[in-house]
Design a protein that fits this description.
The complex is a heterodimer of chains A (267) and B (220). Chain A is mostly helical and 267 residues long. Chain A has ten helices and eight strands. The chains are: A mainly alpha (267), B mainly alpha (220).
Chain lengths: 267, 220
């Protein structure tokens, strides 16, 4: 069964590579590589790890996260990802997936949320948050993004996020919009999604968290945005800051209707 | 001293504006602008060479272009012309009158996308980031498309001798465009490489040669 699946995948990769051959050899090679990898996305391992961590009793309070409310009621994971960020009455804040998971780890399991926020990528409980986010995202695979705009604060964050998206600055006068404000553009060989509107099913907001082939690990949306700002020559955004949440609301609402492919596979 | 005063006063304005808009429904442009500024000031921190002044200390060109993009309307013609004129005045022409350097060095600079991020070190020469957005030589197939193709740049413009009087206008324009792109297009996506101190005069000479030297692969 698995062999048949693999063979079908290779045949598909071959056929698609044929079509791409009209572009240029390097481009076709990269696309072929992607198509072959798509048959087994290493993010699935992170997803499985996240599911274990969700169900495990952990932290000072020795509790599981199975009562965590991600916006659709305590313990409801399916469909939660495609409706985040959203306003949460119990914190009085608009929260994205990762900041909401940290709220749950703090309130249910007794972890120190501020400490987790300050932890570097790939260390300590930050790794747990990444795995949990990957698991939660995977439970909405194939569902349409529908980031809500019902609450006044959600609408306010959209408008603020839009302003941040168009804010040039730094040594190169770059804004998010410099690279992600037009259709059909590239940086080197890398296609750039236009994030001022629905970027499609496997690009931008609906694709993250994602396994990055170039770094060999799963990056969450917070991590993705952090590295965008690095390349934008900005100072570093604080993990979990309102600025990043507002930006995520802008990107999420623009992507409404796209099918979630997270955790996706990326360059 | 002057800068500290400015930051303190702008922080006070932002705080007042944000306090005034608690619970406001979306739509009031001024308050939302202040809230965006507040989130930027509180949501970022200096890391390595990337200090907070990269957000707080932007010039009138950047402010006007940001406002236009947020409003979804291009700058009116008079404002655009004024901004272009201001940027034109900042251009430093080559100190020895020599516009072209070595195209081989220019190609290396055009290839490099390094420099000025928080993971780059102070004092290390930056790259030009040129191929990130432009096609340049035919040999390099990994090029971006945010900017126009520069393949055959000099040839298409009839430059056979970059030192000739006939070539002078295009040579000067090209120098100016690399030094400060906003002198010719107020809200251009292109960085102001000389003006912002990303590239040195010598590096710009080498990129000039890559684009304009008849022997450069760009013009074959």
């Amino acid at each position: 069964m698995r062999v048949i699946h693999l063979l079908a995948g290779l045949a598909l990769a071959g056929a698609v590579a044929g079509a791409w051959a009209q572009k240029n050899p390097a481009e076709a090679g990269i696309e072929e590589y992607r198509a072959m990898l798509a048959d087994g996305n290493p993010a699935e391992l992170t997803e499985a790890k996240g599911e274990d961590l969700w169900k495990q009793k952990r932290g000072p309070k020795n509790a599981s996260l199975e009562t965590c409310d991600l916006g659709k009621g305590p313990g409801v994971v399916k469909g939660a990802f495609v409706e985040l960020p959203r306003y949460f009455p119990d914190t009085g804040k608009v929260q994205d997936l990762e900041t909401r998971l940290i709220t749950c780890m703090e309130r249910i399991q007794g972890f120190n949320g501020a400490e987790i926020m300050k932890t570097p990528w790939g260390k300590g409980e930050k790794v747990t948050v990444d795995a949990l986010a990957t698991y939660v995202a995977g439970q909405s695979r194939g569902m349409a993004i529908k980031v809500p705009q019902d609450q006044p604060m959600e609408r306010e964050y959209y408008e603020v996020g839009k302003r941040i998206f168009f804010t040039r600055g730094g040594t190169h006068d770059f804004a998010c919009a410099t690279c992600h404000g037009q259709d059909g553009k590239r940086i080197r060989m890398q296609d750039l999604p236009n994030l001022t509107k629905n970027p499609g099913d496997n690009a931008g907001f609906p694709a993250w968290p994602a396994y990055r082939v170039s770094t060999g690990d799963v990056w969450t949306m917070q991590h993705r945005l952090n590295d965008c700002f690095r390349q934008q020559r900005f100072p570093e955004p604080n993990y979990g800051s309102d600025a990043l949440t507002a930006l995520s609301v802008y990107l999420g609402v623009n992507a409404n209707g796209a099918k979630s492919t997270a955790p996706a596979l990326k360059r | 001293m002057k800068k500290t005063a400015w930051i303190v006063s702008s922080a006070a304005v932002v705080a007042a504006a944000v306090a005034g808009c608690a619970g406001l429904p979306a739509g009031g442009g001024g308050n939302l602008d202040a809230e965006a500024q507040h989130m930027l000031l509180t949501g970022f921190h200096a890391h390595g060479i990337a200090k907070m002044d990269r957000i707080t200390d932007v010039d009138d060109t950047v402010k006007a272009c940001n406002a236009a993009d947020i409003a979804g309307k291009p700058l009116d013609e008079a404002t655009a012309k004024r901004i272009e004129a201001e940027n034109l005045k900042t251009i430093k022409w080559p100190s020895d009158g020599k516009y072209l350097g070595d195209w081989k060095e220019g190609e290396k600079i055009a290839q490099s996308g390094r420099g000025q991020t928080w993971s780059d070190k102070a004092g290390e020469p930056a790259g030009g980031n040129c191929y990130n957005c432009h096609q340049i030589t035919k040999q390099e197939i990994s090029f971006g498309t945010i900017g126009p193709s520069l393949y055959n740049y000099g040839k298409l413009r009839g430059v056979t001798d970059p030192n000739s009087a006939a070539a002078k206008p295009i040579v000067e324009y090209t120098w100016g465009k690399i030094w400060n792109a906003k002198a010719y297009n107020a809200c251009s996506n292109m960085p102001r490489s000389g003006h912002m101190g990303n590239l040195t005069e010598g590096q710009i000479r080498d990129i000039m040669a890559l684009l304009l030297d008849p022997h450069s692969p760009v013009n074959q």
